[in-house]
Amino acid sequence: MARPEVWLPILLFASWANGRTIPSKGQEFQQAQDTGFTEPLIRDLHVGELNFLHTTDTHGWLGSHLTQPNYDADWGDFVSFASRFRENRVGTAGDLVLVDTGDKHDGNGLSDATVPNGLESTKVFNEQDYDLLTLGNHELYTEENTVLEYCSTANSEKFKDAYVSSNVEFITKEGNPVPFGSKYRFFKTKNHNFRILALSFMFNFQRTNPRAKVTPALEALKQDWFQDVISKYPAESVDVLVVFGHMPITDPENREINQVHRHLRKIYPKTIIQYFGGHSHIRDFAVFDKQSTGLQSGRFSETVGFLSIANVKSSEPSFSRQYLDFSKKSFAYHSRVSQSNLVTEKGSKISNHLSKLREDLSLNEVVGYVPDTYYMDTKPLQSKHNIYHLLASEVLPRLRSQHTDDTKSRFIIINTGAIRYDLYKGNFTKDSEYIVSPFPNDWNYIEVPLSLAEGVADYLNKGPVLLRSLAPPSALRHTLRHTRPKSCPFIHDPERSKGYTTLDDGGCEGDDVPHNTEIYYDIPNVVQSVELKPGIQDTAHLVFYSFIQRDVVRALNALNEQKAIVRHHYSEKDCRQYGGHATKDLLKEWIRDL
Ligand SMILES: *[C@@H]1O[C@H](CO)[C@@H](O)[C@H](O)[C@H]1NC(C)=O
Ligand SMILES: [Zn+2]
Ligand SMILES: [Zn+2]
Predict the structure, then answer these.
(1) Is residue 37 part of a domain?
(2) Predicted local distance difference test score (pLDDT) of residue 33
(3) Are 394 and 532 found together in one domain?
(4) Can you list the positions of beta strands (E) in 137-244?
(5) pLDDT tens-digit map of 353-394
(6) Total domains present in the chain
(7) Whose CA is nearest to atom 10 of ligand 1?
(8) The pLDDT value given to residue 19
């Protein structure tokens, strides 16, 4: 199938002479090793008539990535950037719209060390002057989060127009559903007077707390309020339909966004429809048709997504996208100021406040020193630099039961979702704890024939993605990787920092910084630590997180059926409390004892 033509940034390889180029104004070039061809240190973005800056899935990462120079900007720098960029790059020749698509909690001490979670970080986040913002599923797990989000943001003076949610309702104390913000927003841009109609959809998330309700997007589009919107703003009175929300841009499984698009196209057959998505934590850009594309801008304040549309009023608009590293270098470069001139007064205030907040929440408190870096999925599982390998070989063996002895062979199974981020070399602080492994867990165990116990982890990993919801979000990336047939040229250049080489519908040059390509390995659902006792033994202790108990029991019965080992149907009644410290505490103890 031919892909519609999309205008995308074209790299300028200035001169091939001697393999060296003369940097043009405002551009730095560096020679890539071996290949003899040159590539800029930062690829330029293409400002158009209508421009967007997009963030998503920030998960409390407002204080920058202290252990990763690629992402050394904090929220104050981002606020400075938006204002410098508007001033120096967009000016009056274009318009700039700031968008966020939710998930602002769960991932970093700045949001998670307060009660309720997000109490302070929400105020900091809201310092950015978003034109369009909404919520993610992480604003809907607990009641206190939902109430905080509604009161402090959706219903706030500052954002009461900008906050849009077309398919989520807040349930008041009295039990009445009210829209979570506005159902839609119509506004005109400042310089070109583009008429923008914005809608916002959350993916079909049905595990909300009782104070919220999500209506599937397609259902919401059939409700009366939307019929009213259509008659008030028919196609001829809208220049650009912006559909932003907490929904993946590429969704091979449910194709929810594609269904929304099909529906909207019937009503707005020729209108530009620009999507902004989130939730799957990736950089992504998809072309839906000649007048429609979608952008998704990563996770954890590692990325600011940029999208521009040129020829907005023509029948052939052109789209351009770029993923900016969340760094001072990128921010300064794209706003055409030196790094020392990037920070505005407001930005500097926010950064200072963040430092103080880190102090107040004791996030810098040092637990111990990590001698090496351990990765979730950029080193293979068998590598000694893989965090699951570390857990299985060094950390989990420290588990001691309060209820049984350790004379039996032991299999300890954990789901890989227990880890949320890479563990970096250097000081392990209270903040690192929130970042890497915040989840408490209880251990249960069951005594079973060794020949059954040894098959459980494999079974759970081969099974039909039964623990999907427990897998870390980055596992979604792997599902997606197989949906696009081609791959990007591998950049091997040790001079460059490791990072994203994103393949999307626009090609391979979407990342503003051409990185030394990072390879991602598949992570299984579960990993296990195995301790076999010498001598012949019939049974072993199978130890696992209490919340995967049902899956473990199911696996045991399935294996027993295959192998016919015992005459017994396992049930949850066979499982007992094991006791012992949670994985996160075992990890801390390991670090402390180093
Ligand atoms: C690491 O912690 C020690 C104290 O525990 C401190 O002296 C040192 O400055 C810290 N290093 C960094 C890079 O923060
Ligand atoms: Zn998220
Ligand atoms: Zn999400």
Answers:
(1) no
(2) 41
(3) yes
(4) 168-171, 177-179, 184-188, 195-200, 212-214, 240-244
(5) 999 999 999 999 999 999 999 999 999 999 999 999 999 999
(6) 2
(7) 427
(8) 27
* Protein residue closest via CA to atom 8 of ligand 1: 427
One-character DSSP codes across 440-473: ---EEEEEEEHHHHTTHHHHHHHSSSTTGGGS-T
Residue 128, token pair as written in the block: 């950015």
Does residue 394 sit in the same domain as residue 529?
yes
Answer yes or no: do 398 and 541 share one domain.
yes
Q: How many CB atoms lie within 10 A of CB 352?
A: 11
Token pair recorded at residue 292: 């429609």
Rounded distance between C-alpha atoms, residue 462 and residue 89, angstroms: 51
Distance 39 CA to ligand 2 centre (A): 32
Closest CA to 509 of 82, 39, 18: 39
| Domain termination residue (choose one: 298, 331, 360) | 360
Cβ–ligand 1 distance for 152 under 6 Å, the answer no
pLDDT digits 0-9 by tens, 179-229: 999 999 999 999 999 999 999 999 999 999 999 999 999 999 999 999 999
Tokens of 50: 């209508």
Which CATH number characterizes residue 450's domain? Answer: 3.90.780.10
Residue 500 to residue 477: CA distance in whole angstroms: 12
Residue 427 CB less than 6 A away from ligand 1: yes
Ligand 3 center–CA 30 separation, angstroms: 37
Q: How far is the CA of 512 from the centre of ligand 2 (A)?
A: 22
Instruction: Write out the two tokens for 110.
Output: 């700045």
* Contact of 545 with 434, CB cutoff 8 Å: no
Pocket-testing residue among 427, 430, 591, ligand 1, by greatest number of atoms within 8 A of Cβ: 427
Query: Does 390 map to a domain?
Result: yes
Identify any residues that bridge with 29 across adjacent strands, giving them in sequence order: 40
> In this structure, is residue 6 part of a structural domain?
no
H-helix or E-strand spanning residue 517: strand 516-517
Helix, strand, coil % (nearest 5) of the chain? 30, 20, 50
Helices (H), 310-375: 328-334, 345-360
CA of 22 to the centre of ligand 3 (A): 44
Domain encompassing residue 79: 50-360
Rounded to 5 degrees, φ, ψ at 242 are -105, 120
Q: Which amino acid is at 231?
A: S
Nearest CA to ligand 1 atom 12: 427
Q: Decide if pLDDT at 306 tops 80.
A: yes
**What's the CA-to-centroid distance between 56 and ligand 2, angstroms?**
8
The reply to whether 500 falls in a domain is no
Is any atom of ligand 1 closer than 6 Å to the C-beta of 366? yes
Both 254 and 110 in one domain: the answer is yes
Q: Are residues 400 and 333 in the same domain?
A: no
410 and 545 part of one domain: yes
* Interstrand relation of 498-499 and 516-517 (parallel, antiparallel or unpaired): parallel
Q: What is the pLDDT of residue 230?
A: 97
Q: List the structure tokens of 193.
A: 């007077």
Going through 234-374 in order, the beta strands assigned E by DSSP cover 240-244, 272-277, 283-289, 292-297, 303-310, 318-325, 366-370
